[in-house]
Specification:
alpha/beta, Rossmann fold, 3 domains, 555 residues, 24 strands, Formyltetrahydrofolate synthetase, domain 3, single chain, Domain 2, N(10)-formyltetrahydrofolate synthetase, three-stranded antiparallel beta sheet
Amino acid sequence: MLSDIEIARSIKLEPIEKIAEKAGISPHYLERYGDFKAKVKLSFYEKIKNNPDGTLILVSAITPTPAGEGKTTISIGLSLGLNRIGKKSFVTLREPSMGPLFGIKGGATGGGYAQVLPMEDINLHFTGDIHAVGAAHNLIAAMVDNHIHRRKDPLIDPRRVVWTRTVDMNDRALRHIVIGLGGKQNGCPRESGFYITAASEIMAILGLAESYLDLKKRVSNILLGFTFDNQPVYVKDLKFEGAVAALLRDALKPNLVQTTEHTPAFVHAGPFANIAQGTCSVISMKMALKLADYVVTEAGFGFDLGAEKFFDIVARVAGLNPKVVVLVVTVRALKMHGGMDQKELNTPSPAHVEKGLPNLEKHLENIAKFGVPSVVAINRFESDTEEEIGVIRKFVESRGSSAVVVTAYEEGSKGAIQLAERVAQLSQHDRHYKPLYDLDISVEDKIRIVTSEIYGSKAVDFTPQAKKDLKIIKKLGLDKLPVCIAKTQKSLSDNPKLLGRPKDFLVTVRSINISSGAGFLVPITGDIMLMPGLPKEPAALKIDIDEEGNISGLF
């Protein structure tokens, strides 16, 4: 079979105006970025906001292998399948970060014959949204340091600045740095650091804001640090929220592209799920819901990360209501959770699949806690055997659910027809999901509920720093915000080495970051890093460009 990039190049793309026409978007509302990409003006949403909403479908997964289990491929494939059976469908996805692209995971545009296109453009720079987020974030950092240098009121304590800088690349050397060296003219020496752009609060805000006024208000509420007498300092206190929002003017507009079968797709905003809320922008989902019968969206990593945050943060804030959860499962991931060496995952072993089933079981239990029906999508790989797939089917059916084999990677929409039909059937209900916790309870209790109910922990240990942070949060009146727990994606626990369904483990909360602009708190657990590092053999070693400008090595 051809590689992803070869398949992408083999498809003759349709002009973006034609894709917009299929979606019901007038050319008047497009801002073109070449022939095959466009932004949709926010004024278009005002025109269609009274249209009835379509049905929202959320795609999540079990705890993944390092390479991922194909949630994006299944999301695109499901949307293709829904269109194939006569349902007008839109897929809405996050924008890829160049950190994972050049690291271990590669791109994030799907795979095989279930991709969003143009693949190279979307993975590399796209329409510049992530760069805009980085510029806006770093403008705030520059304004803070200039404020300190000029000794303006309010007098910010350089030792208590909580705002970092950001770059869209895995660069461990920037995690902890000292800035302002070189003498008085170069500012005030102090400790600082970098987050990857996908972990920036600005990225989280971009994903949640629904208008320019909402965007500016959220930016104004960003906590920057504290004065020498322990008073909080927000962006609104320094009065430059308008400049930051101005840098994000175009970034807030959803990006329209197409799939391998020329159906419409929004690819917009890119917060990580192991650190931030892990889903595409609210405005892109809401716009799509006004245009389609079905909108398929994904939440990053396993259900314990992206999907929990989707329900408890994104859907709660935006008033969204997913009708079905599609849980992506692979034979490979279950074998990994069953104890098989990752280098041997292509070797058939029904016994290891069976040993890995407790991880799947836990995720199915977690979905049920939100009161939403689910279907298991088995993303089939070439090495999977019928016996291995049969083990999964039997287990899922014994738990009162259903499992569908999906071959969208190899067959596009044809390989997702059965999943599309099952999703359409399951979505015929009027129930509303229920959040996991009430916002009025304490921050400690919110964390304990998520860690015990979703992760399966026995207890939570709050370090002295975390306890100090809790006191500050309560003093600032921010204790009613939801929690967006930063945790490894490699395990249900906060220890990446605990595979399967770990039990009787302790979750350690090291600190709690305040994202008051985004509207949530970020408990930092285990050894999770807000700036990843590159692996021993980065994907960047295989990416190249020839004399004609053709890129190779992307996947």
